[in-house]
Amino acid sequence: MSRAALFFMRMRGFLRKEMLQIYRDPSSIALAIILPMVLLFIFGYGVSLDAEDVPLAVVLDDPGPEARDLSSRFDLSIYFHTHYATSITEAEAWLTRRQVEGIVHVPEGFAADLLNGREARVQVIINGVDANRARLIQGYSHGILQKWIEARQARGEPALRPPVTVAQRVWFNESSVSRNFLVPGLITLIMTLTGTLLTALVVAREWERGTMEAILVTPLRRVDLLLGKVLPYYVLGMMGMVLSVVIGIFLFGVPFRGSIGALFILSSLFMLASLGFGLLISAVIRVQFVAAQISIVAGYLPALFLSGLLFDLDSTPRFIQIVSYVLPAKYFVTISHTLFMTGNVWPLLLPNALALAFMAALFIGLAYRKITKRLDG
Amino acid sequence: MGLGTAEDTATEGAPVLVVQHLSKSFVTKKGAPALLALDDVSLAAHRGRVTGLVGADGAGKTTLIRTAAGLLAPTGGTVTVLGLDTFRDAIEIQRQVGYMPQKFGLYQDLSVAENMTLYAELQGVPMAQRPERFQKLLRMTDLTAFTRRRAGALSGGMKQKLGLACALIKSPRMLLLDEPTVGVDPVSRRELWKIVYELVEKEGIGVLLSTAYLDEAERCHHVVLLHDGKKLDEGPPRKFKDQIRGRVALVTPPAQIKPRQIQNRLAGRKGIVDATIRSGRVRVVMAQEGVQSLARAMPDAWQPTIQEAAPQFEDAFMALIPHREGHFQIASRSTAGPGADQDEVVVRTRDLQKWFGDFEAVKHLSFEVRRGEIFGLLGPNGAGKSTTFRMLCGLLSASGGEIQVAGHDLRRAGARARARLGYMAQQFSLYGQLSVAENLTFYGRAYGLANSRLQERLAWADAEFDLARWRNTPAGQLPGGYKQRLAMAAALLHEPDIIFLDEPTSGVDPLARREFWLRINGFAEQGVTVVVTTHFMEESEYCDRMLIMSQGASLAMGTPAEIRELARTPERPDPTIEDAFVALALGEVAPRGRATDAGKAGPP
């Protein structure tokens, strides 16, 4: 038989074995399919960076209709749930006890100032323990005030002084739903799990169970071993990706504005980089427990916290930003955010794609060099 | 079939394996001295012959086989297989050899047929040849009926045969087997040897096989004896045995004397290399010829019968390997029998059952153990020994039946019963980073020993187990035999009435095993009850009574003599315990000593 025929026979045997193992071993199915779904549901439903129904105290020291008109805007907002306090002291007590997260205080003489063209003041106090949330609440209340001023102007009532208006518009994530931002990022996390954790685990398992020793003493070459592990877990990881995208679009209503082809090519690059990293770990670590620890600490956690998936990298310390450049996840988070919310913006996608291609080649190359047909390395 | 000794020096074929001045060292830690696993070993294996690598654990057998398979690079010297260098032409060699590692190398989630297909694909066996090849291998290994069963669900013996079938998938010219029979029941061991002979005789394969079972050495054509990484000697088994002809004696004790007493007296004496109990007699290997001189080493009143015996490989092994200094000698030889309350029952089970889900691991087991008895639980891996054992120690709860230990019902008064028993687990369960003294102090305190009482027992442990010079050594760094001594000292520190020993001799070399049994005998003589599990059939000779288990049920119970008697036939006038086990397992003789007979067979 020719060398090529023998090669294909070896690959066929190896791939069939991997497939049967994946199919019969509940833990790999759980890690590749079930866990991504659980993560999607937790992040999709449970974790929300939005603020809705925020309890808010309203203190109207000015009984005039202008003040009532303003406070009714807060009553009707979906972001707030208003509670009327009789005095600012009472409202402050609520805030201290965390019964409300903010106070809108309309002081005495508000209407008079307004009508006389003097500066009319409205005080907004916000619980700033959670800075992000405080900023959100601040934004919402400003928006409401702004809308109220616009409405007054439209009705031809006297403008507020100083008549400065802030024109705000949110692009891409028009409704500012954090889910639209989280779900595409989550796909990165899911692919890291399959690519790095699962791959490192299955190779370490072969060492632990002694099967690796037996297949090393066959005409299997290093490249066969590499391909035999890359191909099945590439397919499995891409399946997880497709599943997440489908759930994201159809269940969570996340927009997808890029092309499927671009998503396929770019996620393949990321998948290969993750796989390469997993194989590199498994080429060095032969114990499942340690392999899992390393893949979680060096693969999963950085992908979760340092990739820009949850937190904007621009606001992190310089050091973290430098570290993030060696993480494939950082590049893919950008790519996936772009594809989902903006579209095929090649000037943005291309540099990230190149970085991923380089990392995939680097990790797989290193893994190939580290894979050995000997026990003593 | 009996021991097949096919010594055939006439037809030396071309060597399939040549090892020249092979050395292999492992660097365990940076800066630490490298571990020399093989030291200047040379040997050759020929086609059509079985070459056996024989030696205790840590002798370097596995390292040598792995180097021959191209899995390890030699530190010095060369290994050539079929004329190819294992370092440079590993892939070419791997095309032509079959290799079975110690763990068999099977995929547990794959069926028998799928495992075979995988290896056929990896080895490039053409599709057209497969049906015939598979059929032949399945027939040879008796696995035809199980092709669809997952490898993980096979018994130990079947896994081992499937591993062999996978190694043979491409009709290799050389077969490398690393301890293929370890932990497998005697029936499967015999079947494996039958297959190996068939391959060697019919297909002319060269086989290199390692084993720690010394009786298996006699089945090889050529034996290489390894010890501590060095080759001690090599040659056909007959050569080894010829070296000690006239130095082996069988001592038959008179009616009133136990073989154990004779063994205790002889073992460790000057001029005596080895003394073991075999089939109710004491087998003695002497440093020099003249077996009748043994009579002088025993009291005149005993008047034992001393016969010269034909040497076995094990006798030669014991004579050849260097005996380490401080070899165990019984400190206090008690000639008096055990205490008066010999009939007191200290362990009693009735209808003991254990279910794991819908799997019945222990089936209606009933037995009794008396004070001062050594009671053995025997059987292959997976027979239910360890499960029974854990129930006796209160580590597992029973699904049904009763257990009484030291007069307490384990279900109700577990803690009180436990204070009176000592337990030595199968795996080394001491703290590796703590020193010997710290470990012992910890265990002493855990059992409630304090102050002068604790000091007294620690001093006892140092003296009894010769641990004084290791006092400050971390337990993890002790040599194997001493680890076992420490574990035993920890189990005995609180002077328990009953000690439970779970596979105390597995993974321990023959020297340490002998020493262990001598010590156990000593404790039994002092009235301590010993319950011990083992898968070494020959070790049951040291027990007063034993229970042979297979698949969770009792096959037979009785004294070693009674068990051997079961297998006595005209063709086999002097059967061993292993013969009896095989006969029982194959159903050639009816099981006996089960539930209703429990406890009737008392100590001799």
Describe it.
The complex is a heterodimer of chains A (377) and B (604). Chain A folds into 2 domains: 3-47 and 177-376, no CATH class; 54-154, abc type-2 transporter like fold. Chain A is built from 14 helices and 4 strands. Chain A has helices at 3-24, 26-46, 65-76, 88-96, 110-115, 131-154, 179-209, 211-216, 222-251, 260-284, 288-305, 318-324, 328-342, 346-370; strands at 54-60, 80-85, 102-106, 123-126. Chain A has a 4-stranded mixed sheet, with helices on both faces. In chain A, helix 3 links the parallel strand 1 and strand 2. Chain A starts with a helix and ends in a 7-residue tail after the last helix. By secondary structure, chain B is of the alpha/beta class. Helices cover 29% and strands 25% of the residues of chain B. Chain B contains 18 helices and 24 strands. Classes of the chains: A mainly alpha (377), B alpha/beta (604). At the A-B interface, helix 1 and helix 8 of A face helix 2, strand 6 and helix 3 of B.
Helical amount of chain B: 25-40%
Gyration radius of chain A (Cα, Å) is: 28 Å
- The strands making up the biggest β-sheet of chain B line up spatially as 6-7-8-3-9-10
Catalogue the unreliable spans of chain B: 1-11, 325-340, 594-604
Sheet with the most strands, sense and barrel status of chain B = 6 strands, mixed
The count of domains of chain A is 2
Q: Mean pLDDT score of chain B, rounded?
A: 82
Helix and strand succession of chain A? Answer: HHEHEHEHEHHHHHHHHH
Look at the structure and give the mean pLDDT of chain A. Answer: 84
